[in-house]
Task: structure prediction
Amino acid sequence: MKGLINNRNYWLVGGSLLLAFLCYRLAFKKTIEAWQENRRLNSQLLNVSDLSFQPGYLERKFKNLSAVADLYKVDSINYRSEMIAKVAGIAQQENVKVVNVPLPDEADNTQHLIRQKIEVKGVFYSLLKFYDQVEVRHEAGLVRSVIWKELPAPVNSKKDDQLLMELYLVTVK
Result:
């Protein structure tokens, strides 16, 4: 037994095993557990990242989109007359003149959308106020685009600040 205590090889092997055990307990064990937890969470993340499998999310998204679409939904039969009446009322308030409301081009309309063009004439600031009111009220539809055109001044007229605004509106059928 005395030979075992004095033999340095046994002390070296015992010390190495003790050092390896302490290293495992203090450093390697936590690293291995963190690596396993990372793999587990990444696999859960891959399963959750496909949102098409979440019916609650899809229902909320559909509800929100339906609420936005309902703001612009109209009866397509009465739409033109109601839209002209609403636009004319706003035009009268802002001192501009509705020049033309052409029939919508059927090729431009889709199964779900009605696109309407309105031509309005007036001075710049009145047209700008008119545009703002149409955009804020949403009564006639959503403003898709606006084109500003300068009208040539008549020969014996002093008004050279007349502009033509082509307003394109979109509404859900």
Notes: The mean pLDDT is 80. The beta strands are 97-100, 113-122, 142-150, 163-172. The helical segments are 2-6, 8-48, 55-71, 79-93, 124-137. The two ends are 99 Å apart (CA to CA).
